[in-house]
Amino acid sequence: xxxxxxxxxxxxxxxxxxxxxxxxxxxxxxxxxxxxxxxxxxxxxxxxxxxxxxxxxxxxxxxxxxxxxxxxxxxxxxxxxxxxxxxxxxxxxxxxxxxxxxxxxxxxxxxxxxxxxxxxxxxxxxxxxxxxxxxxxxxxxxxxxxxxxxxxxxxxxxxxxxxxx
Length: 165
Ligand code: ZN
What we know:
alpha/beta, five-stranded mixed β-sheet, three-stranded mixed β-sheet, globular
């Protein structure tokens, strides 16, 4: 457990080092290789709203290599992906009014970008959420963790009270 917390602290440290000027605005890139450029996204707890910008640096169309960015509890990810598959490409591989989805962008193709803004009131501090792409088959590799943490999260990362579920 101690070792895990040390690894978490190290991950937070790395994430902090690459943070943008406004920590409440995060950019994530996707490409023609079916990849996101981030595996973990962290946002400080003082953000009341978070703005996530998804960019597609590839050239393939949305029909061939479309990506979206969806945020949910880790335990809801599979169900959301399956419901999205059932909804199909017309609906951007997202079921309508799926309450399990915390935030989602539209599906974009190469050269495009999409932004979604959402309130952090739906998020619990220290809980690891999942972000993923709902295009068929993509989430096997296009996925990562999203964590709301204290601004002084490095010092608090080892405090069990911040990892409450
Ligand atoms: Zn994708």
